[in-house]
Amino acid sequence: MLLGFPIDSVSPSFTSDACLVRHLIGFDQQTEGLVVPDRLEGQTAMTFMHRNAEQAERDMHRMVSQLSESISGPPDFGLYFDCSARGRRLYGRGGVDTAVIQSVMGDFPLIGMLGGFEMATTLGLPLLYTYTGVLVLVRNRTS
Predict the structure, then answer these.
(1) SS3 label, residue 86
(2) Alpha carbon distance 122, 7 (integer Å)
(3) Residues 71 and 133 in one domain
(4) Whole-angstrom Cα distance, residue 5 to residue 141?
(5) At a CB cut-off of 8 Å and minimum separation 6, what does 118 contact?
(6) Which domain holds residue 33?
(7) How many domains does the chain have?
(8) Are 82 and 92 part of one and the same domain?
(9) Are residues 127 and 87 in the same domain?
(10) In this structure, are 72 and 131 located in the same domain?
(11) What contacts 98, CB < 8 A, 6 or more positions away?
(12) Are residue 67 and residue 106 in the same domain, yes or no?
């Protein structure tokens, strides 16, 4: 079972990068609380989450399209750090995320790596994400 925790507790949102997803790993009988593998002090909101391959692919398309609109042309190269829980385990087939990136942004050298988590900055905070991908694009300033 997965739980979602909003990053911004003032205006909680459970979509896209505005939410951290964590496993429910137990129930603490003494405090009558849920146990997750993270310190979530000050959290006042949460939701139950469900992994959905179709929605994940639509989200990937939406986010890569937004990113592509903010730059002119394909980058010189890119790095994609993808959670090992995505890919074949999520979609039932491999290469979905990288295919979306290149179909939307064009052909450019793209190096990828699977990992157990991803790190990214959201709302100025360095955060540990799971079930996500982090795309780093590099462009030569002179081109």
Answers:
(1) coil
(2) 8
(3) yes
(4) 38
(5) 81, 82, 83, 128, 129, 130, 132, 133, 134
(6) 1-50
(7) 2
(8) yes
(9) yes
(10) yes
(11) 80, 82, 110, 112
(12) yes
- Tell me which DSSP letter residue 132 carries: -
Position 104: which residue type? V
Q: Are residues 71 and 106 in the same domain?
A: yes
Q: Could you give the percent of the chain with pLDDT greater than 70?
A: 96
Q: Is the pLDDT of residue 138 over 70?
A: yes
**Whether residue 41 is found in the same domain as residue 13:** yes
Round to whole Å and give the CA distance between 29 and 73: 55
pLDDT tens digits, residue range 56-100? 999 999 999 999 999 888 899 999 998 888 888 899 999 999 999
DSSP state of 82: E
pTM of the model: 0.78
Yes or no: say if 8 and 15 are a contact pair by the CB < 8 Å rule.
no
What CATH number is given to the structural domain containing 105? Answer: 3.30.360
Are 29 and 57 contained in the same domain?
Answer: no
CB burial of 23-60 (b: ≥16 within 10 Å; e: otherwise) equals eeeeeeeeeeeeebeeeeeeeeebeebeeeeeebbebb
Give me the mean pLDDT over the 48-61 stretch.
Answer: 91
Six-digit token pair at 140? 């030569």
pLDDT given at position 74 = 84
CA-to-CA separations, 18 to 4, 84, 139, in angstroms, rounded: 10, 21, 27
